[in-house]
């Protein structure tokens, strides 16, 4: 949810804040499904967004 709302590693999807990110994650339970859903809804999601999110997830999960 925090990555979707925007973090230091990934820009947020325009029009997607903390409240909407929480609602989407609660409904879809997967960051990549949320990105796909936002693309289908017409939001401007960068082509490299999925790879950037994956790198951010790895950074958060494997920080020292």
Could you give a short description of this structure?
The chain is an all-alpha fold and 64 residues long.
Q: What report would you give on this structure?
A:
By secondary structure, the chain is mainly α. It has a single domain (2-61), classed as DNA polymerase, domain 1, CATH 1.10.150. 61% of the residues lie in helices and 0% in strands. The chain is built from four helices and no strands. The longest helix has 13 residues, at 49-61. The protein is globular, with a radius of gyration of 11 Å. The relative contact order is 0.19.
Please give the CATH architecture: Orthogonal Bundle
Q: Which class in CATH terms?
A: Mainly Alpha
* Percent of residues in helices: 55-70%
Total domains: 1
- Count of discrete alpha- or pi-helical segments spanning 4 or more residues: 4
N-to-C SSE string, H for helix and E for strand: HHHH
Which class best fits the helix and strand makeup? mainly alpha
Largest sheet: none
Low-confidence stretches: none
Tell me the strand percentage band.
under 5%
CATH topology: DNA polymerase, domain 1
Number of strands: 0
Overall pLDDT confidence:
93
List the keywords:
64 residues; mainly alpha; DNA polymerase, domain 1; 4 helices; globular
Element layout with pairings:
Elements: H1 2-5, H2 18-28, H3 31-41, H4 49-61
């Amino acid at each position: 949810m925090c990555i979707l709302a925007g973090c230091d590693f990934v820009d947020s999807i325009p029009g997607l804040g903390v409240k909407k990110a929480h609602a989407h994650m609660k409904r879809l339970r997967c960051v990549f499904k949320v990105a796909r859903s936002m693309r289908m809804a017409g939001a401007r999601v960068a082509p490299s967004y999925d790879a950037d999110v994956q790198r951010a997830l790895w950074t958060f999960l494997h920080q020292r």
